[in-house]
Amino acid sequence: MRQYFLEDSRQMYIARTTFPSLTYPAISALLTEKPIDHTGIFGNQITDGARIVNFESPGNRPRLNDMIKDRNIFSRLGQIGFKTVSLDYAFQANASKAVNSTDIQAALDILNKHYFSVDQGLIQTLKSILSENDPKNWPDFIFVHLVGVDFTSHDLGPNSKEVKEYLRLLDSELASVFRVLTDAEVQKQRQIVTLLTADHGFDQDISSYFNLQEFVRHEDRGIQILNEGRYLGLKYPSYWSSEQKGAFINKIMQLSEMDIAAYREDENFFIQSKIQGTKVRYIPATCAESSFAISVMSQSPTCPENLGGSLNQLFYPFFISNLSYYFQSPGHPDAILLPRPGVSLKRGYKGQHGGPTSNEIYIPLLMRGSRLENLQRIPALWEVLRFMGR
């Protein structure tokens, strides 16, 4: 990877992902080229009335694809005659061709933790597409989602020797793909742009477990809870008053395990940590990414994508702008409860992500055949494919 992407003094860029830094909101943002408020995919789980829809369940993949159908990079490129391929078992809406989403062997391999077999199969499919066709007949856009680094990091920790070994295996497996692409470049058979990035980073290694879900249930079993492991999303019963909600947040923030609570009320959202609170107001506006601007602590309104300086570093990097999209997502939770880094709300894992820390939000971006024009700005994940077909 280093030789392919970084030779000739090319550099590795840094991009930033969504909040939450979870797979389904992040990849939906990448492929729709929009922040998460445009899709309603605000987590790996969303709500449908009283029902929780978990996109990690294959049975909910049709719902997932319906939510991005006709408004993603596959559909955009298809409208100008481009051929597209999705090598992702979940995200396939509008792709000209896609891997078999009901691949039983791949599902069994994941259940049995044979992650490399899954990734190797996807890479082999990519190799076949490239080697069995003349470069002039290659698809115009191929999206590949490799899952093993993520799963291994959950199982054994993101800093484990097994993750490093897995990366070495991937590097070796991808070498022949990079050779084919390089040969096509050298022979000037077609222009090729290759990007390698991630949908999220990882929190620090898990150091403790806290059953925050049970604490919330003890308060009122009518509260609907989305437990994403790194944080809880809450939907309050309709009979809860504003005063009751505020008192509950204050009670939660007394817990030593807690880091931040954020919640929306009317046209405002609030962020509360142990040491400070911040009010953010939504104001109708025409912005590049949204139909709203935000005013942070009564300062002049600005579009979320333009929020800069110290304001967008409050609490965590880009946290306020990311939250502004989160609390505009259709069906969004009323509140989120975020424990300290390293505290997990689910048992059974050594690694987690989903939070707003720099380790979770900042992601690598490697490019060959293209480059970032503005090196003073960290691009959002939903921006990185916008140059395609333009």
Q: Key features?
A:
single chain, 390 residues, 2 domains, 7-stranded antiparallel β-sheet, 3-stranded antiparallel β-sheet
Per-chain topology:
Elements: H1 2-6, E1 13-16, H2 23-32, E2 45-48, E3 51-54, H3 61-68, H4 73-78, E4 84-87, E5 97-98, H5 104-111, H6 115-131, E6 141-144, H7 148-156, H8 161-186, E7 194-197, E8 208-209, H9 212-219, E9 224-227, E10 232-235, H10 242-252, E11 258-265, E12 268-273, E13 277-284, E14 292-296, H11 319-326, E15 335-339, E16 343-344, H12 358-361, E17 362-368
Parallel strand pairs: 4-5, 4-6, 8-16
Antiparallel strand pairs: 1-17, 2-3, 7-17, 9-10, 10-15, 11-12, 11-15, 12-13, 13-14
Helix pairs in contact: 5-6, 6-7, 6-8, 7-8
Could you please describe the fold and organization of this structure?
This protein is of the alpha+beta class and 390 residues long. The protein has 2 domains: 2-203 and 352-383, Alkaline Phosphatase, subunit A (3-Layer(aba) Sandwich), CATH 3.40.720.10; 208-344, no CATH class. The chain has helices spanning 2-6, 23-32, 61-68, 73-78, 104-111, 115-131, 148-156, 161-186, 212-219, 242-252, 319-326, 358-361, and strands at 13-16, 45-48, 51-54, 84-87, 97-98, 141-144, 194-197, 208-209, 224-227, 232-235, 258-265, 268-273, 277-284, 292-296, 335-339, 343-344, 362-368. The strands form 5 sheets. A 7-stranded antiparallel sheet has the order 9-10-15-11-12-13-14, sandwiched between helices. Strands 1-17-7 form a 3-stranded antiparallel sheet.
